[in-house]
Write the structure tokens for this entry.
Amino acid sequence: MVVTSRDEVTGKLVDVDHGLISREVFVSGDIYQQEQEQVFARAWLFIGHEAQIPKPGDYFVSSMGEESVILCRDRESEVHAFLNSCMHRGMKVCRYDEGNTPVFTCPYHGWSFATDGKLVGVPYFKDAYHQELDKSKWGLIEVPQMYNYKGGIWATWDKSAPPFLDYIGGFKLYLDLLMDSWDGSDSGTEVFGGVEKWLVPSNWKFPAENFIGDRYHNISHRSVDMVGIGPSGTGRRDTNERAGSRLLDVSFPERGHGTVMALRPGDAAIPNAYQDLPILAEYFRHCEEEKKRKDAQLWRLLGGPGTVFPNMSYLPRQPRSIAVWHPRGVNQTEVWRWFLVDTKAPQEVKDYLRHYYIRYSGPGGLTEQDDMENWNYAHSASRGVIARRYAYNYEMGLGYGTPNYENDGLKLPGLILDSTEAKAAEQNQRGFYRRWAEFMDAEDWGILANWRNGSGHE
């Protein structure tokens, strides 16, 4: 099915006003191909962390949609992102995941490029090209816009896209729960270990919408909860904190971002955690006290899973991580996961969290295995001729969101649904697909930057 008009996307495939999403958006090859042009070639995408390339010559090969890109530091320590494709015949000029190099040399015909992207070496330049090749025109293609936000590197192929901070808007408050140190300072986070990578036989939108705020699938993780695999040596600390808190679903439908969180009472006590390891207990207690001292109102926010449109999702609390859902065909997603810790955390804290992250998340983690089973079975069961005739239901909580929610003096940006009693809602997913449909329909960013004319909720 080729999507050619706004009516076909917003009317037939995505009807968020009634909470209906066609299965075609997950299983149609034509729609998938259009996504590469309409979504991934225009949106801001997460490509890595500055901690992965600390020194001149360091590089990390990432991905933007289906495009391989090289994130690197040049000799002057400037950060660049280049299309990983030689301008001669298209061969990848870098076939390693990460490393350090003075030049990238194409293994096909030997063209070589400096870490600032300039073409510096051409075999037979004098004899075959007669020194007439203009090297200045044949360097690596640089990503037009890139932004370093608190260590996270974001990029877009679209020169006309709004600046990253404009793209994020009021959602910045919730992204900061991930990127700031645990004590609320801007001393930063770092990634450690390698990037976990694995394949899931489902469309990329299944995990993206799951992480934007699917509280409803708690049955999937029942065994994990019973085992008590959580950010405390003595049980699920986060579960205990949520018990006395307001549960909020936060959506930015005009941008497509969303998250879920708990809002603890202003008089809540600092929780105990890691009591079996005194150094961890002391570190996190100190961080919580510092955060509360700096801003007692914002300390009340307990960040939960979230998604920055289109395909970067995160967990701001333990396990603190970033996941990117790379499209690898309509029926397959390549998952990349980064793990974060406070830069200034003691080594014992980093070591403990590394082991905890491994057993909780990723292809070997108990929670992630539950999720992957859901996504691949749901995708497989939706591909049939009969199944594709029936839309998915996204009606939960329809019409109950409140813009600019306020609680006990704390004002929060976004369209917020208090689901404390209901326990779950699908407001964030509707916001995600509303934005997806806009990307699929809009001709350019003049239309997509709709928040500038006062639409949406800030």
Residues 1-7, 231-237 have pLDDT under 50 and may be disordered. The two ends are 35 Å apart (CA to CA). The longest strand covers residues 333-342. Residues 169-453 form a domain with the Naphthalene 1,2-dioxygenase Alpha Subunit; Chain A, domain 1 fold (CATH 3.90.380.10).
